[in-house]
Amino acid sequence: MTSVAAPSPSARPRLRPLSVVPYALLAATTLPILVLYAWLAYGSFFQNMEGLRPVGSFTLEHWRFLWDPGSVEQLRNKPAIIPMTINTFLFAISTALVVLLISSMAGYALSRLAFPGRRMFLGGVLLLHSFPSVTLLIATFIVLRQLGLYDKLLGVILVKAAFELPFGVWIMKGFFDNVPWELEMAALVAGASRLRTWWRVVLPLVRPGLLALGILAFVQGWNEFLLPFVFMPSGSQQTLSTFVRAILGEGRFVDYGLLAAVGLYYIAPVLVLFALAQDQLMRIYAGGVKG
Amino acid sequence: MDRPQITEITEMRGTVSAVPREGRAAAWWRANATALLFMGPAAVMVLLFFFVPVVITLALSLTNAATATGLSNWEWIGFANFDQIFRGQFAGIVFRNTLFYVLATLAFNVLVGLGIALLSTHVEERAGGFFRAVWLLPRISPSPVYALMWVWAAAIPPFGILNEFLSPIGVTPRDWLNSDPWVIVILVNGFVGASLAMLVFTSAIKSIPEDLFRAARVDGASAWQIVRRITLPLIRWPVLFVLVYQSMSLLASYEYILLTTNGGPGLYATEVWSLWAFHTALSNYYGNREFGLGAAMAAILVLVGLVVSFTLLRVFRFNDLVSEPRVEIT
User: Fold this and answer.
1) Which of A10, A135, B79, B260 has a CA-to-CA distance to B121 between 20 and 30 Å?
2) What CA–CA distance (Å, rounded) separates A164 from B50?
3) Does domain A79-287 have CATH number 1.10.3720.10?
4) How far is CA B327 from the centre of its chain?
């Protein structure tokens, strides 16, 4: 029985020669990703690149679009970058708010109330959660046309929020399920309405969940390409995703430095959010399989 | 305060017995008013952007609606669209492309995802977390920027880094997007997709009791034996789930193909079914967007999506997930 008391000392030495191997394998497989991102950053600060070798000297000229957009020839006939950034932000924040509001309402009802059709709705939400909503794009085009929301930012916001909703409702229901109900019972017994109880008592208790879902929905909205691309063709309210695609499509290697700089500018807020809320995002991605 | 708890409990049960004086319909509305208020917005959104589009997709697939007919002058044409699709010369090519794309990418996703999950849970936790975070980068990056990096990486010498990395090990430098578009398509999608498998498998591996590993190690099992005999058998359900789930989402997805090869180079080289539907109905070079024909292509995917989602729901124990809420137990 003494061997049971000392498992790790006896097991460890044998594993030690091998323990470098998993690190090496991980580093080797992860390297392509690191190189791609590092290269994007690197390439935006040199006149030109030949593979990993910078050609010419260090320069900020590719970043001119930020302070002197008029001097960048490739962007002459394009929408200005700052209004487009504001559009993208508005799109992302509106999507996040709509998703948060609607899914925390529905999630609460599904967690706490008994009503006809509850099981059906829960089943439907789970079904839609794994359903590939992108297959509905053609029909969604018709819906938006009929609603008069085609080629409008509001229309794209609603579609994006709707596509994120099954996940949001499901995850919010989970957060509410974990909140003990004594507190809200006390509020209800004291005469507060359901709506008030939900807003004042229950929502504050799931604030971390709201924050995680909000960040996720914001990032998804900020990144969204296909919906603005298809449903806002005129470009009057263009977002950064369709803009990057447009300059990417125009001549692939004409000015990579500029493309890299614009790409990095677009991706930076996501990277910052990811660095700040990495644990929450990892957990919520793992919990809700979407994509 | 005339006994508020009674009315609340009545409302929560959704029963009409406590209010016998009112008509049944009025009582029903009263009993469910709160639920309706909370569920209303979500129900409208689901109706407008899921339920109605599914119906429209199926209905539209039986019409000849197109830019040429407008949205008012179309006609019902029965199954003529499906006839046209399957008799046409491209269905076979696109079908084979789709099959190859889904299977190859799926293999990459699951094998790489499994590898990263196994390795990153067997090294020190902080290091494992770092590697997993890096693998999540492609998923959280805007698709045009991510695609841009690959398009540039795949460029001809001396620009692309892919050639720079591969020529030392004997791969002839080339213009990857033109000569081997599938390699790029699968890598672009694979590096995004593998992170899903990685996350699902990681949480499955982490939920295996540590005692099992410790016991195996005491018995002298090698690392490979532990993986083969303990880890893999215990995560077979998550693996099956990822296989089914990802084959469906790959079948429906075309965003990264659109951004890299856009179905090319040339005619239908990397065109997959979902991209074909998109091109036909929403982004047509010839100016005539054929909504009906595209909807017929999409309808097939919608039906597959519904069947697979429903199966996932049933197989992965849906009933356990929707147990009655406990606040009702009064």
Assistant:
1) A10
2) 12
3) yes
4) 34
CA dist A192 and A187 (Å) reads 6
Q: What is the mean pLDDT of residues A257-269?
A: 89
State the pLDDT at residue B286: 67
One DSSP character per residue, A131-163 reads S-GGGGHHHHHHHHHHHT-TTSHHHHHHHHHHH
Minimum distance, in Å, between the CA of residue A258 and any CA atom of chain B: 12
pLDDT at A61: 78
Q: Is A60 on the interface with B (CB under 8 A)?
A: no
A186 touches chain B (CB under 8 A): no
Residue of A nearest to B282 (CA): A138
For CATH 1.10.3720.10, the residue range(s) in chain B are: 91-270
Low-confidence ranges of chain B (pLDDT < 70): 1-22, 284-286, 317-330
Choose, out of A12, A138, A196, the residue to mutate when testing the contact with B (most B CBs < 10 Å).
Answer: A138
| Chain mean pLDDT for chain A | 82
pLDDT in tens, A239-251: 899 888 887 776 5
Separation CA B188–CA B255 (nearest Å): 11
Partner residue facing B325 (CB), from A111, A121, A143: A111
The topology (CATH level 3) of B91-270 is MetI-like fold (1.10.3720)
Phi, psi values for residue A77, rounded to 5°: -100, 25
A window 206-265, beta carbon within 8 A of B: 219, 222-223, 225-226, 230, 240-242, 244-245, 248, 252-253, 256, 259-260, 263-264
Would you call the peptide bond into B265 cis, given omega within 30 degrees of 0 as the criterion? yes
- Shortest CA distance from A12: residue in chain B: B217
